[in-house]
Automatic annotation (TrEMBL):
Family annotation (InterPro entries): Cyt_c_bgen_Ccs1/CcsB/ResB, ResB-like_domain
Cellular localization per UniProt: Membrane; Plastid, Chloroplast thylakoid membrane
Record's protein name: Cytochrome c biogenesis protein Ccs1
Function description: Required during biogenesis of c-type cytochromes (cytochrome c6 and cytochrome f) at the step of heme attachment.
Subunit details: May interact with CcsA.
Family listed: Belongs to the Ccs1/CcsB family.
Major place of residence: membrane
Name of the gene encoding the protein in the UniProt record: ccs1
Alphabetized UniProt keyword annotations: Chloroplast, Cytochrome c-type biogenesis, Membrane, Plastid, Thylakoid, Transmembrane, Transmembrane helix
A GO cellular component entry from the record: chloroplast thylakoid membrane
Domain ResB-like: 21-288, 357-418
């Protein structure tokens, strides 16, 4: 008895979740959170928020506004909206579909409360019902007959589609929650020729796992420039290895063309100049670390080389076009050299062997993408199907006439066209029968 009461209690609560006002309120909260997440930059360092939003820092920290889409309350809102949709589907949509599939026969005028349109009366002859059946079938209606009553409907997909709209939204929400728990994001900046593992996590879900046996090698990096000198595109060639085997896959990636391997996606996002490789008298090789600078909107990389205690030179690079500027202590350009070109500093021969760039990669794994995309695809299709009209027609015997009444849930004009077509087909079959009767009588005579 207690179990029965407990089930009733939970069932009542579950049915209350199907309330439209509650669903709209939760949806409004989710939309408001998404707008906030679009306005306020997400996943930034806390220093960024201290500088730009110092007056609201405590609010940002308390509500997690720097990572809205990963906060507990946002996931809770998605979960509650998912429950409301499930409740509405089970308690409202499924019974409505079951009722739509039930054959509803009418035998008298008292039961025509089901209809919205009293269409007309037709003479009840021996073949009237058969003529109506043919007419309805030609109008793509499903026809059922019991005794002297006909019931026909079409557009049942329009009643089924709202259920699948709900299911598609539920799939999107569940996919988002699944992605929250099982996805991860990494950022890697790797010099050319280096091997790297997946380790610099930006975000990881509670149940996400990194592929420890996977590592990658940056084979090459280069940049394609416009004629004006601005960057058009930058490219990286990556080789991926799994379980210390030979290269599993090698691909050239660039912006908008990532590499997907084992459900892990490698995106080309940034680049950097890491170091300058120099040789001294073609016998001693060393590297000079570059530091990125921004001056008046211009980006360049600089490195200082001390020649003596009081004298130094500055190497400046602003692109990967194989040109290196050499400046003195005062910042004046002394000379411009190319890769492989020798030059002298303090009577000592130097040579720029190479510029070592670094590629910036963002690595993501989100197993929920297929679920979310499938949910959106199903929602688009079923949303269009839900606009199909569900039309019903009842025909019953009324003394010496056949009474025809109908109902539709939308697209009244199309329904009226269907009724007009049914009437025309009925008249055609009646006339056809009459002509055959006269022909048959004439032959007998």
């Amino acid at each position: 008895m207690n179990n029965f009461n407990l089930k009733n209690f939970f069932w009542k609560i579950f049915k209350k979740l199907a309330n439209l006002n509650l669903s709209l309120f939760i949806l409004f909260c989710i939309i408001f959170a998404c707008i906030m997440g679009s306005i306020l930059e997400q996943e930034q360092d806390m220093v960024y928020y201290k500088i730009n939003y110092s007056n609201y820092l405590s609010l940002i920290e308390f509500w997690g506004l720097d990572h809205i889409f990963r906060t507990w309350w946002f996931i809770f809102l998605l979960f509650i909206l998912c429950l409301t949709l499930i409740s509405c589907t089970i308690t409202a949509q499924m019974p409505s579909l079951k009722n739509a599939r039930r054959w509803k026969f009418v035998y008298s005028q008292k039961k025509t409360y089901l209809s919205k349109y009293n269409i007309g009366k037709y003479s009840n002859s021996n073949y009237s019902s058969i003529n109506f059946i043919y007419s309805l079938i030609n109008s793509n209606f499903f026809v059922f007959c019991r005794n002297s009553s006909l019931y026909a409907y079409k557009g049942l997909y329009g009643r089924i589609a709202p259920i699948f709209v709900h299911l598609s939204i539920i799939a999107i929400l569940l996919g988002s929650i699944y992605g929250f728990f099982c996805s991860f994001v990494l950022q890697e900046t790797v010099p050319v020729g280096e091997i790297f593992h997946l380790k610099n996590l930006v975000y990881s879900g509670f149940y996400s796992t990194l592929e420890s046996s996977l590592f990658a090698h940056v084979d090459d990096f280069y940049i394609k420039y416009y004629s004006s000198g601005s960057v058009e595109q930058f490219f990286s060639r990556l080789s991926l290895y799994l379980n210390t085997q030979s290269s599993s896959i090698s691909r050239l990636i660039y912006v908008n063309k990532p590499l997907i391997f084992n459900y892990i996606t490698f995106y080309q996002t940034d680049w950097n100049i890491n170091a300058l490789r120099l040789s001294l008298n073609k016998s001693y090789f060393f590297q000079q670390k570059f530091f990125k600078k921004i001056d008046h909107g211009q980006v360049f990389w600089a490195s200082t080389l001390k020649l003596t205690k009081s004298k130094k030179v500055l190497f400046i690079v602003n692109s990967l076009d194989n040109k290196v500027l050499i400046c003195n202590d005062d910042g004046l350009i002394v000379k411009e050299v190319l890769i492989g070109q020798s030059f002298y500093l303090n009577s000592t021969s130097f040579c720029v062997e190479s510029i070592i760039p670094s590629t910036g990669l963002q690595i993501k794994s989100d197993p929920s993408i297929f679920i979310v995309y499938f949910g959106f695809f199903m929602m688009i299709i079923t949303t269009f199907l839900s606009y199909l009209s569900y039309s019903q027609i009842w025909i019953y015997d009324s003394v010496s006439f056949l009474e025809l009444v109908g109902s539709t849930n939308r697209a009244t004009l199309f329904f009226e066209q269907d009724v007009l077509f049914i009437d025309q087909m009925y008249c055609y079959y009646v006339n056809l029968k009459s002509n055959n009767y006269f022909k048959y009588t004439f032959i007998l005579r």
